[in-house]
Amino acid sequence: MRTFIAHDGAMDATAPTKLLTVNEVAATLGCGRTLVYELLGRRELNHIKIGRLTRVPRSEVDRYVERGLSCNPGRGGPPEQRRRQPERLTALTLPFSE
Predict the structure, then answer these.
(1) What is the tens place of the pLDDT at every residue in 46-87?
(2) Cβ distance 88 to 76 under 8 Å?
(3) CA distances (Å), 47 to each of 17, 28, 37, 61, in order?
(4) 54, burial (CB in 10 Å: exposed 0-12, middle 13-18, buried 19+)
């Protein structure tokens, strides 16, 4: 939990965090940091940069979850956003020359 300093200088440890770190986003979504960075790179999650720090607004994470997407694109989300599974070959016939 983070501690916030109010304008009057008082400490408030109960205030909700509006900006999440990549690790906090990963914990919220139940996935790893690498996948969160991939989501940021694909612009599926909007983020802001503060110097070299990456922060994701809590509202963006909530929006992502409400859209029904998961960290595993092959298993979650709307059908049009799921990865297609490759078709399996059952038999392969090759011409043989003698």
Answers:
(1) 999 999 999 999 999 999 988 875 555 555 445 555 555 566
(2) no
(3) 14, 15, 10, 10
(4) middle
- CATH number of the domain enclosing 54: 1.10.1660
Is residue 65 classed as helix, strand or coil in its secondary structure? helix
- Give the chain's radius of gyration (CA, Å): 21
- Residue 83's closest CA among 70, 67, 95, 96? 70
| Residues forming beta bridges with residue 53, ordered by sequence position | 50
In whole angstroms, give the CA distance from residue 45 to residue 55: 11
Domains held by the chain: number: 1
Owning domain of residue 65? 17-72
Per-position DSSP letters for 4-48, written without gaps between them: EE-TTS-EESSSPPSEE-HHHHHHHHTS-HHHHHHHHHTTSS--E
pTM: 0.55
